[in-house]
Amino acid sequence: MRLLTVNAGRPKAVDHTDAPGGVTGIDKRPADGPVHVTDPGPKGTGGSGLAGDAVCDLRHHGGSDQAVYAFAREELDVWERELGRPLANGSFGENLTTRGLDVSGARIGERWRIGPDLVLEVTSGRIPCRTFAGHLDEPRWVRRFTQAAAPGAYLRVIEPGAIRAGDPIEIVHRPDHDVTVQMEFLAATTRRDLLPGLLTAGDALHPEALRAALEYAEKSATDG
After folding, report:
1. What is the pLDDT of residue 68?
2. Greater model confidence, 23 or 17
3. Model pTM score
4. What is the 3-state secondary structure (H, E, C) of 122-165?
5. Of 113, 186, 116, nearest to 148 (Cα)?
6. Rounded distance between C-alpha atoms, residue 141 and residue 130, angstroms
7. Which pLDDT belongs to residue 19?
């Protein structure tokens, strides 16, 4: 398992985003040399965990529980065949393009060490949005991406560090529950009945996912 590229984006004005100012950092390109990764701070004020990477809509993106976004090269290869066009590393707006790691099959709370120092923890899957659809410029993209249910993973920073292309990735902790990124994504999108099952992942869940699971379980109990 290894890191193919570390990808960062600069603010860019586009007509397919609802972000303030009409700018987005989704167009991410592989960085040269090491990139330092730290906890960016709470959502709403903190952006990307990667130095030099822009997160322009702090209402919905960035912050401690979405500090880093990872996507598997294997899934990009699947989409290349589906879309009939090349997809460079970073094409889906991911910060980390990986090889040999089942990103969407990772368990919530799973921890990865990348390079000598950085430790990340899996929190949730990526929900597709208008900006993502406009960036890819593919018809019905949000629906297609949702149906594929291979969303890639958001991660929080447990131990900061510098990473670079080619660094090894090691799974240093795997929780004993069975709540995967894919399961969390399905619960958030097309399978709301899965929400109560997310609770076994506990506080490792993205706070918004945990809140949704608790509210669904409470409502189900009240409704009998």
Report:
1. 98
2. 23
3. 0.96
4. EEEECCCCHHHHHHHCCCCHHHHHHHHCCCCEEEEEEECEEECC
5. 186
6. 9
7. 78
Contacts of 125 (CB under 8 A, 6+ apart): 104, 151, 152, 153, 154, 181, 182, 184, 185, 188
Return d(Cα 181, Cα 123) in angstroms, integer.
8
**Token pair belonging to 19:** 């972000």
CB 6 within 8 A of CB 163: yes
Residue 51 contacts by C-beta under 8 Å, 6 or more apart in sequence?
A: 35, 36, 37, 38
Amino acid at 167: D
d(CA 92, CA 87): 8
What span, in angstroms and rounded, lies between the C-alpha atoms of 186 and 160? 30
Residue 83's CB is within 10 A of a number of other CB atoms, namely 13
Contacts of 73 (CB under 8 A, 6+ apart): 4, 89, 97, 98, 99
3-state helix, strand, coil in the chain (%, to 5): 30, 25, 40
What integer best gives the mean pLDDT of the chain? 95
H or E segment to which residue 113 belongs: strand 111-114
Look-up of token digits 């899957």: 125
Beta bridge partners of 156: 121
Instruction: Return the H-helix or E-strand segment holding 186.
Output: helix 181-189
The count of residues in the chain is: 224
Q: Identify the pLDDT of residue 224.
A: 63
Our measurement of the distance from residue 11's CA atom to the centroid of its chain's CA atoms, rounded to an integer in Å, reads 19
